[in-house]
Design brief:
The complex is a heterotrimer of chains A (343), B (398) and C (458).
Chain A: H1 2-32, H2 39-57, E1 60-69, E2 75-81, H3 82-87, H4 89-97, H5 99-121, H6 131-153, E3 169-170, E4 185-186, H7 187-209, H8 211-221, H9 223-228, H10 233-255, H11 265-280, H12 285-302, H13 305-310, H14 314-329
Antiparallel strand pairs in A: 1-2, 3-4
Helix pairs in contact in A: 1-7, 1-10, 1-11, 1-12, 2-5, 2-6, 2-10, 2-11, 5-10, 7-8, 7-10, 8-10, 11-12, 11-14, 12-14
Chain B: H1 6-25, H2 43-66, H3 74-90, H4 95-117, H5 122-141, H6 145-148, E1 154-155, E2 178-179, E3 182-183, E4 186-192, E5 195-200, H7 201-222, H8 224-241, H9 247-271, E6 274-275, H10 282-295, H11 302-317, H12 322-328, H13 334-344, H14 352-366, H15 370-384
Antiparallel strand pairs in B: 1-6, 2-3, 4-5
Helix pairs in contact in B: 1-7, 2-7, 2-9, 2-10, 2-11, 3-4, 3-9, 4-5, 4-9, 7-8, 7-9, 10-11, 11-14
Chain C: H1 12-21, E1 26-31, E2 48-55, H2 62-79, E3 105-112, H3 117-131, E4 135-138, H4 142-155, E5 158-161, E6 178-180, H5 185-200, E7 205-211, H6 214-229, E8 233-240, H7 248-256, E9 261-265, H8 269-280, E10 287-288, E11 291-292, E12 294-299, H9 302-308, E13 316-319, H10 325-329, H11 336-347, H12 353-372, H13 377-384, E14 387-389, E15 397-399, E16 406-407, E17 410-415, E18 426-432, H14 434-437
Parallel strand pairs in C: 2-3, 2-4, 4-5, 5-6, 7-8, 7-9, 9-12, 12-13
Antiparallel strand pairs in C: 10-11, 13-17, 14-15, 15-16, 17-18
Helix pairs in contact in C: 2-12, 3-4, 5-6, 8-9, 12-13
Chain lengths: 343, 398, 458
Amino acid sequence: MESFILQILNGLDKGAAYALIALGLTLIFGTLGVVNFAHGALFMLGAFCAVTLNRLLQVSHVVLDETKTDFLGNPRKIEVPYIQDWLGETMGAAIIDWSVPLSIIVTIPVMILIGVIMERGLIKHFYKRPHADQILVTFGLAIVLQEIIKAFFGANPIPTAAPQMFAGSFDFGVLLGFDPFTVFYPYWRLIYFMFSMIVIGAVFAFLQFTTFGMVVRAGMADRETVGLLGINIDRKFTIMFGIAAAVAGLAGVMYTPIVSPNYHMGMDFLVLSFVVVVVGGMGSLPGAVLAGFLLGILQSFASMSVVIEAIPGINQVIIYLVAMVILLVRPRGLMGRKGVMED
Amino acid sequence: MLGLTKRDTALFAIVVAMVVFAPFILNPFPAASPMAQFNAGYPDLMQRFLIFGIFAIGFNILFGLTGYLSFGHAAFLGTGSYAGVWMFKLLSMNVLPAIVIAVVVAGLFSVLIGYISLRRSGIYFSILTLAFAQMSYALAYSVLTPITNGETGLQLSLNDPRILDGAAAADGSLPVPNFFGIEMRSSTELYFGGWEFTLNAGYYLCAVFMIAAFYVSIRIFRSPFGMMLRAVKSNQQRMNYTGLNSRPYTLAAFVISGMFAGLAGGLLVAMDPLAGAERMQWTRSGEVVLMTILGGMGTLIGPVLGAGLIKYLENILSKINDSILHQWFSLFPDGLSDFLVFIVHPFIGKGWNLTLGLVFMLVVIFLPGGLVQGGQKIAALFRRRKPDQPVSVKHPAE
Amino acid sequence: MTRSNFTRRGLLRTGAATGAGLALPTIFTGSAWSAAHSGYTNAPEGGTVTLGFNVPQTGAYADEGADELRAFQLAVEHLNGEGDGGMLQTFSEKNLDGTGILGKKVEFVTGDTATNTDTARSSARSMIEKDGVIMISGGSSSGVAVGVQALCQEAGLIFMAGLTHSNDTTGKDRRANGFRHFFNTEMSGRALAPILEANYGKDRKAYHLTADYTWGWSQEKSMRTYTEAMGWETVNTVLTPVGAGDFSSYITPVAQSGADVLILNHYGGDMVNSLTQAVQFGLKDMQANGKDFTIVVPLYSELMARGAGANIKGIFGSQNWDWKLENEKGDRYKGTNAFVQSFGTKYGFPPSQAAQTCYVQALLYADAVTRGKSFNPCSVAEALEGFEFDGMGNGPTLYRADDHQCFKDVVVVKGKEEPENEFDLVEIVDITPRDTATYPVDHPDFQGGSLGTCNPGA
């Protein structure tokens, strides 16, 4: 029972990441009709926004400590972050400690800007081109982006910790009457799940309850007609691209304390997020969210050792297996519309 | 000639000539010159040009003609490779049985995957093939280790039975793949002034297969079957309404391209008898997609050019390091040479991926039809100088 | 007309002579990899010799590869008499005098393995065919090392393995032309077990998370053998996909399993993530069976410790070498400081164990050539087999003839509680003497292959 609850939590947590990435991917596909292979790279860029802010906050000047020596016998260099000089040691350290949540504030404008530049500078010219061309150019862009990140940050994962107060686990099993250390879960993962629910809710509310959202939804349904009605749908779509980039970026920022970011994390998520989108149904936002959580939970259950012993290797193939079954049984995914992406 | 139109015969003749004389064409710089860094005329790379050329030609039969974008073709290359190595281990070091079995096994595997995947079209088809390939990769890497030897890769060992010529291992060293006694790695070297050329047996074996594959590809493109496949691409629905069931045609195209991939896999292990699971990873499937689009999808020669360009960048750029750069720029004053090295550094050595990404973007932005279109544009430039001839924008290769 | 040297850049000198020959082509038939008159592959001609350093420059182990490359560059400098000579001064053999190898200046080419056997073999082949290298070294993954070692065997080159820890490299997949200086999972198991017993007692229940590939299985098997021998019970072993990123679904069952030790048979980025997540899930603070729950990582490097940050504190592991050895454990590990000094002066930080093993391998190769007075791989192999040396930072070391594995002391380390700086993340807990680390040639985990005979290529 306990392990069951824990695996559901794991699944919701994984699913939250899948759903956020797939949501952005579907937004771009549904509104612009563009197959964006650089979407994983946007997720990665978001994570590196957090890394960059963390690094910037720790920009230091060197103080030589003559009393100690370094490994070559020279006086030890001690680095003191400027922020600690300016705001005092405790305040400075606290700000560095909180760098990941703080970077949310930075990431939203940065990612919207990156998204808008990407759309105006590159994607715009590919609306009428075949999907194959879109794949090639966005794939090229993804490689370029990740190589640039690698050049600056190296290839190894960069640990970026959550604030100290969220380290460790929340033993909420005790509250429900379980023994201590049976049902407990890291604070940060619980926060990640709640955060993703807020973001998903915000995106849906935005599309549902604003005029802007209404136009975009209309555009997703029938772009031509909306254009004929004299609405500048292109401008709206540019902003949508920015929002999708920001959603992917936010997913990346909050993910950094869970898995240390590295330059190829975007590519690792890319295939998976495409599978999620297709299982959910191309162009269906609720479908993407649903499929994200569904696949996350299934993957968690398949990783239980009881299951692996019964079917060796199932933990590595479950997602693809489910995708295949769903596509064969429900041709357009869970909630897909007819005629999308079948040409 | 050979049942080809005049134009196709010319193209075919050019390809044959290029392949036969590649060891000379690809080594344009004297061995002693600093530019020798850019020579590609060594067996390993030349073999790869041809093998991945075959892979891309096969992929193009499916993708270029029917428009079905498979993201799982690396799985066929991988199964072909494994089948080939098993043939070396169990039967004989002769490459012929290994290549034949590689094609057969990959063909059977593609019948299975094709039959299921082709029930869907568009991106759903792509994701189905991707799912199959990723599953094959994950299983080959872990659970299927007794067959695939996991991460290490399947390789020969001294204890293999090798029913037909087990004696080859008698002297205590591993036997070498051969074609009825001709070792794949044996070469003839020509020295001509400062130039060196290597004529490699394995390369010419690949050449025979590649030329054959190219010929088959021309015939398919020009056949009624090819027309049918093009009809699938332009409007499958209309085809279905006329009462034609398109599935057998697409399945045939899928299996043919799977067998080409198997041939490529078999040749890979014939040149270097080791098969690794990484060959089946989705990035490898993506690579052949990129080769085809980069060269020009739906054209005959495009995929070969795309394969060549990507393999060239991968092998030549990744081997240039800073000390070589310093040597190149040593003619310039110190400050300038350091600056030039600093500018070029991110694009070479470990940064070759960056160059590759930029090339993808540039080609697809400025040459939507791939390298073939680039060639046409250049050709059109020359043609324009003669006033009488109208500018031809038709795809000459189609 | 002279048959030209394979090394391109070394050819500027011979180029003029061959250019004069002009129109008459020379034809030379035979294996691409052999030079008939010298009797072995890529025999160096002229005043230079080229070595090939095939390391991961992209992919998950790129940082380790970069450190290996730094070490190789340093080794080449020292062999050519530049810099301060590093370990050449402390090495027990005094054949190398800074005039290159056998009087030939050492040059090198580099390649990218991408931590991928296919790419690595392709890169190695191009080094052999295009650049005419006489020896290949490097690699930061056992699969790659085994693949490239087999290629060198076929081509008739010496392979000096870099960082490769799986038993198979000198076990099931050993080759006559391949040599490994780094230690292996068997030695890790032998070294760690007594320390674990001393610190955690005989009555423990262990849970293994194992990377699902050759090295992971090898590591798990060795750890099980030696922990079970001292009375530990193995509760469960679970294979995790390589590069999983999020290990939460493998970590959560650990708390309920009744285990009180978690053994993470992970390396590189996988280890950084799985350890960090295990700590996040509170495993380090947990009580189980009335004992403090503990985590063990049998193999980790300084680079990984840096990645895991504070989570590595108090965690036991094993290493081939550590840059603090000579300072802390005395003169037996002579050579360590000389190497750290020249590496640190050149690059500004201390070398990793990957750097040390690659540096030593390059020097050992050069020395073996000099002692055998020939670049012929069979002569080099003969010189290395059964070779006993000292002064290379690991204490007295033996290259065993039977399986081409080096035997030396193994370092048991622990994540430091109060690191003084970013390079000082691990402390040396104990040294397992060479005799304890040595296993018999007929050890069952190393069966299923044979060296074969040395192949000079021609």
